Structures are given as C-alpha cells and as structure tokens.
Amino acid sequence: MVETDSINMIKQLVAFDTTSRESNLKLINYIENYLSDLNIHSYIIHNEQGTKANLYATIGNNDAPGIMLSGHTDVVPTDGQTWDTDPFQLIKKGEKFYGRGASDMKSFIGIVLAKLPNFLSRGLKIPIHLAFSYDEEVGCIGVRRLIEKINQLPIKPSMCIVGEPTNMEVIIGHKGKRSYDVSVLGLEAHSSLTPHGVNAIEYAADMISYLKKLANNFASTGAQDQLYDVPHTTVHTGTITGGTALNIVPKDCSFQFEFRYIDKDDPDKIETKIREHINHNIIPKMQKVNSSTNINMKCENEIPSLNLNANEEIVTLVKALAGKNNHGKVAFGTEAGLFQKQAGIPTVICGPGNINQAHKPNEYIDISQINECESFLGRLMDRVCN
Fold first, then answer.
1. 226 three-class SS
2. CATH class held by domain 5-174+305-384
C-alpha cells in the first residue's frame, strides 16, 4: 500500500515522544516550520516555564470568524505497558496503524495538517483556525492559556471541532469533572491506647464510605441523561495512603477522589454537600478527642461539562460533514467544555479513532477511520473554499 500524505504526517507526529511529563516543543516547532513553508503564521503560547507550548494559526483571512479545528499534542505514558512494537513509531499491521497517540489524537492533527495544501490551493472564503494544545491528558492545562490568547483576538472563531477519537460520530456533550486531594490530620497514639488517638485512616474511610453512598444515590435516584453510556453523575476514589506501623494509631492519611457530572447536576452543590458532611459529621467526632485534628479538602482540577443544543449551527454542520444524522455524548472529559464555557465558542467533538483503544498498550487506529476523516475534511473544503 502506498502511504498517503496523511499517513506520512501521522508517522512524523507519532515519532515525537510527547508524553505529558515531557516537553512538546520539538513537535510544536515541527508544525510551526511546516506551516511556515505554507506561508502560514503561527502564534506560539508557552507555559510559564517555557518548556511546553500551544500553537494557534489561521489559514485564510483573519478578518472573519471561521471554524477552529482543535487537538492536543500530548499522549499518556507507556510505562508498565507491554507493546508488540515501538510505541513511538507508526507501524502498519493489516488494516491498522499502531503507535502511541495513533488514536488519541495525533491522527486527527496529522490528517488536518496533511490536507492544508489542498485548502490553500482551492482558496478559502471562510478561514480555518488551528488550535493545538499541551497537557490535555493531565487536566486540560495548556488549553487554558490558549483560550486566553483567543479571547484577546479582535475576531474569534465562530465554532470549533475537537478531533478526539469518536469513530467520527458527532458528540454534542461530555461530562464535567472535579478532582480533589483530601488530607486527614489525626492524632498519633500507641495502638494499645487507641481511644486516646484519632485514627486518620478510619476517618478517611468514613468519608470514602460517604462518597460511595453518594455515588449509589446518583446511580439509583439521581438525574439521568440516556445519551451517555453511564447516564448519571459518578463519584470515584482513586488513591489512598496513610499510617506508619500497625502498632501506631495513624496521624496522617490522604486520598484523591473525583466526581464526573452530567449537565443536569450542579457541581457547586455536589461539592457543598460533601464539605457539609465533613464539617458536620466527621470533624466534630475527631475534635471531640483532640481539637488540633482536621480534614482539608482541596479541588486540584476542574473540567467543565459540554452541553450543546442539537439544533445549533455547528451541530448541523458537523453532521453534514460526517454524513451522520445522529449525535451522542461521552463520559470522558475534553477541551470542548472549556472552549464553550471560557471562550464562548460552540464546540462539537468528532474525530477518527476509538476511545477504547486510547491509553492502552498497542494503541491503534483503523485505516477506515483515517479515510473517513479525510472525507470529512474534503466536505469541509467544499464548504469553506472557493
């Protein structure tokens, strides 16, 4: 099989190790140089340390709103995973291409970049904007600085397509997420004098038990949205550490939890309910033994939900581009909610690949998905080009 321009570009992007703990500057510089060769100017928006960057570029005149195509450049680690191939080389086996980021989501970015010469040769009557970010996989961090740049523009994009892997299905909503670090400060004592101490692990367990009860309530009696595969808000405890020895009442315990909420639930009310339970039902029991004990709960990251009306212009457009009549929602978070809530840009998620392949060893994308995305962009050309 002769490799297409799209596959060659995907191969170039996969070869950059842009695991979130690493810099993405080599990849960003590669894209910047590629765009420069096409006489396209890029804005580079670095993080505070100058070690990572977002890229924003406009193809066509920047005196009209236009359509933004967005994706993240970082990938998740391969640590502890058993791969049959080098994860940072795009390897073809049958009808699949393997490599870290092949599905999530360097294929979308690669196909978009490969098709730019076609957009330019036809001439654009409506501009296309490119928005490529860093550190999406660790909390949609980089895109927030990118949005600051977009909000300063005299004319912002009128709509956005985020190319996360959806099997080229049209996605109009995703859950929001808040994640928390909880530190429980107890009182040490010899285990033979347990009543004189405040067991930080046990009080952490009390709170975790409450979070589980809250999760069960959302599942059984909470608001439902059947467009999601998990149609209700979820609560999940992910890590816990504490204690020093079996014969010591533990002074410290820490854990992390999150909730992912559907748009029908108010995240502020969920957080308030959890804090009220801590303050009214757990801390008083601890401080009855010793007033120095406490629980600190800190929100570490928040990703707002996405919830578009199915009748919005961007939804109608993307359905036409994808050749679809239906739409759905996904449980995983994306940058789309931030574009909608913080930049005021209506955003739809639609991209090649399957989220079930993302983050796993031997991540791959089917050639059929690459072909579908190329057809999608071809129809977009028909809309925005002369």
1. coil
2. alpha beta
The per-residue pLDDT for range 195-245, each reduced to its tens digit, is: 999 999 999 999 999 999 999 999 999 999 999 989 999 999 999 999 999
Q: 260: buried, middle or exposed (CB in 10 Å: 19+, 13-18, 0-12)? A: buried
- 326-345 burial code (b ≥16 CB/10 A, e <16): ebebbebbbbbbbbbbbbeb
Cα–Cα distance for residue pair 98/8, rounded to 1 Å: 13
d(CA 261, CA 117): 41
Residue pair 147/335 in contact by the 8 Å Cβ criterion? no
Beta pairing partners, 336: none
Angle at the Cα of 214 from the Cα atoms of 213 and 215, rounded to 5 degrees: 90
Q: Which tens digit of pLDDT belongs to each residue from 4-28?
A: 899 999 999 999 999 999 999 999 9
What is the end-to-end Cα distance of the chain in Å, rounded?
32
What does the alpha-carbon distance between residue 139 and residue 282 come to, in Å, rounded to a whole number? Answer: 30
Whole-prediction pTM: 0.92
**In whole angstroms, what is the distance from residue 250 CA to residue 83 CA?**
41
- The two tokens of residue 74 are 């970082």
- CATH 3.40.630.10, the chain: domain bounds: 5-174+305-384
Q: What is the Cα Rg of the chain in Å?
A: 24
How buried is 229 (Cβ within 10 angstroms: 0-12 exposed, 13-18 middle, 19+ buried)? exposed
The 3-state DSSP class for residue 289 equals helix
Strand 128-133 with 53-59, pairing: antiparallel
According to CATH, where is 3.30.70.360 located in the chain? 176-303
Identity of the residue numbered 66: G
Q: Top-level CATH class of 176-303?
A: alpha beta
Q: Please, are residues 127 and 66 in contact by the beta-carbon 8 Å criterion?
A: yes
Q: Is 270 exposed, middle or buried (0-12, 13-18, 19+ CB in 10 A)?
A: middle
353 token code pair: 């690949």
Supply 307's token pair: 């919830």
